[in-house]
Amino acid sequence: MNARNTIVLAMDDTDLSEALGCSSEEVESMQNAGVLAPQGQLWEIGPAKDYLRDAVWADGLWR
Questions:
Q1: What is the count of structural domains for the chain?
Q2: Mind listing the pLDDT tens digit for each residue in 28-38?
Q3: Among residues of the chain, what percentage have pLDDT more than 70?
Q4: Which domain holds residue 19?
Q5: CA angle (44 as vertex; 41, 45 as ends), nearest 5
Q6: How far apart are the C-alpha atoms of 45 and 5, rounded to whole Å?
């Protein structure tokens, strides 16, 4: 399994924010945008990690 297919067990947004290293608000935003894909209580966070990495890179570039 590669990093793109990372699956975590998360009971709530707090667990997801800890797994991703971002705020609960950012988790909710990614859920609404379809970046996070739930599979019951299992979540595929690979795309969300890519999204956050790219957002951090872009923010650092355009400051």
A1: 1
A2: 888 888 888 77
A3: 83
A4: 3-61
A5: 115
A6: 7
